[in-house]
From TrEMBL:
It comes from the Eukaryota. It holds the Pfam family EF_EFCAB10_C. It comes from Thalassarche chlororhynchos. This is EFC10 protein. InterPro entries: DD_EFCAB10, EF_EFCAB10_C, EF_hand_dom, EFC10. Residues 61-96 form the EF-hand domain. SUPFAM superfamilies: Dimerization-anchoring domain of cAMP-dependent PK regulatory subunit.
Length: 117
């Protein structure tokens, strides 16, 4: 890999650009606004305000939505779901599953689910 390419990758990772783009893409797919460019501008303005602690960061779903989704996945009320169920939930929401670090023997609790989603 060329030095310039590595510097570019380091820059993107340092500023968390891939995560921001994934989040913006997920917001677009979830809300499907009539005017996507204006929607993205407003979302970026909320990110900027949230970083200055002047507003709320734009989340795809609130805590109640996440808890309801978890309950749908945890049909028998065990208090956890499998990594396979978690991956499917992310795919349903239009979120990436590429960077998941969970082994198949790990139980995903509601707290983990909320933090990760």
């Amino acid at each position: 890999m060329a030095a310039g390419e590595q510097q570019g990758r380091d820059y993107l990772q340092r500023h968390r650009i891939p995560e921001l783009l994934h989040r913006l893409g997920a917001l677009l797919l979830y809300h499907r606004p009539e005017r996507p460019r204006e929607f993205l501008i407003q979302a970026l303005e909320r990110v900027k305000a949230g970083k200055r602690a002047e507003g709320e960061y734009p989340y795809l779903m609130d805590q109640a939505n996440l808890a309801a989704m978890f309950e749908l996945l945890d049909v028998v009320g065990q208090g956890h779901i499998t990594p396979a169920q978690y991956r499917e939930a992310l795919k349903t929401l239009g979120l990436s599953t590429e960077d998941l670090q969970f082994g198949d023997d790990v139980n995903i609790t509601l707290d983990i689910f909320k933090d990760e989603v």
